[in-house]
Amino acid sequence: MKLPIPIAIVSLLGMTVSLLTGPAARATEPAPDTTPAVSSVEGRFVGQAFPSGSDAFFAVGGSTDVLNPARVTLHATLDQALAASGRWTFPSVDASGPVTTTVGGVTRCLQPDPSQAYKYVYPAVCTGSTAQQWGWEVFANDRVSGYGLVSNGGAGGFLRQFDGRLAVGGFGSVVDADRVTPEGLDPVPVAIPVTLEAPTPGSVVREPRPVFSGRGTPDAVVEVLDSSGGPLATATVTAEGTWSAVPTRDLAPGAQSGTVRQRSDDSTANWSLTYRVVTAVTVRTPALDATVDDPRPVFSGLGEPGARVTVLDDTTGVTLVDVEVDGSGAWSQQSLRTLEPRAYTATATQVFGEQRTTAPLRFTYREPTPEPGPVEDVTLLSPAIGETIETADPVFSGRGEPGATIRVIGAWGTEIAAAEVGDDHRWAAPINKSLTPGRYSGGSVRQEIDGVEQSRAPYDFTVAARAVVAPLVVESPASGGVISSSVPVFSGTAQPGARLEIWSAWGDLVGTTEAVAASGRWTISWNKSLLPARYAGGTVRQIIGGVETHRSVYDFTVASVLRVTSPRIGDTLTGTRPVFTGTATPLADIEIIGAWGTRLGTTKADSSGSWTVEWSRDYLPGRYQGGRVEQRVNGTFIDQAGYDFRLVR
Known about the structure:
Strand order of the largest sheet: 14-20-19-16-17
CATH topology of the largest domain: Trefoil (Acidic Fibroblast Growth Factor, subunit A)
């Protein structure tokens, strides 16, 4: 029998028409108690053949060709089909009549053409014939259930989709057909009320944006609302009836609740949880910028119980700590690596679930100071007593008390060399003059602490007649000079055949040449790239026959290119006093000079090379160009950059 549809629903929502694949059934009269309805309603031409899948729904658009069957398109969801369908007029549920649309301003009626294969349906001239009369039938099968359209009072068969065109099916029983539902209503299965599976009510979450998930009606839109009704997250239920949604904003710490609502049927589910913020990692020891003397110090701090904390050396990438935060929220571990004497920068990283927090570490490791003991007397190891040396510029060397002053006094009471004993108890004092060949004795090496002589040792050596040694001269980089290359190249003059060594201030051998050329000219490249900074305190040493004859202390700066990060060329600034920022050589002098030579501001780059200069007074709106920013290191001009910007208020 025909299934009545309330007129209010039909008139508001229209009708959708489904593919009908079974044989036709005979039309029956409406039940005696059927409510009378209008003869026709308008709606979207949409139908369904399968419960789900990419071809579950079809849509019939408005045909523009009166001679060809109506084309259809296939869609995965009802919403997609509705968007692609055309507007048609259908008979009301309790009457038969034409299915019409407007083509080129003319009303056309849907009609099967028996002369075509599969009886394709096309928009024909409306004649009022029985072939153009359609009626609604209700049915159900093992796939879907709902309404179907039958032509010719049931003799023409059911509408179906075939080969991309709308066609009429064969003959048979209604139950073999597919379903049609009123436009806008969710298809079978019947709407499934929304449920919430996670987070469970009253649970504690640690993520600021926890995943909400549950079940609902396929293709329905689910909203997660906060306690005030504000939207927190949305999702579309999958074909399998599951949904999950991630909030678009972070939850506030503490207990909170709200509602999950499914739009299609207004079903709801309550949610409640407590968001407990993950404790960020902090470092207690070593304290920031501290100095430690333990080669394997204990690193400690606070964090989230159960989280994993690692400490990585920023310079080498070596792992110093890998430990789990205990139940009290504390962590500690002795360094996994033995430290080397230097300044350290490192990063403590805590991982808890998907959340990661970090904390910086800066400290310096120095070898422990030995316990005070007896003062070590000075000893002279070179030149040894009675030794004949091959250089006219000897370097006195030996052992003594760390920190003590060593003075070499000649036979006539004049100081000819001086040095300080290093932490390794060793000292080396180059002579301050060139000696002529002959024997030298009667002088002494004296060790003084706080100006008081503690011990002395005599010297007695002979300079060979052939010992005429050229001095070591370092021409580049000049003392206090500036270079632009990150790989310094040292050059100068020295004794032909001599070995030259460059030692860093940290005691590393950073460059050598085995033998100076016969011309006396030499060049040595540093064995690694240097960062922009000042480098001082290291030495260049000349060695002949295994004996150091000369040394020169270097002091130079590796310059960095001046960069103006703001304002960039063409920028617009707001205000009356422009603020310039950029990067340059660490501790370089930065000065802004106007187009007419006006000095607009100066500063000094910090240890990282960053700098900021605010112009010294207020300026009117306008375009400012032609000036420059200059960089100088130790008074030496390095480079400059021009500016061009607009100032507005």
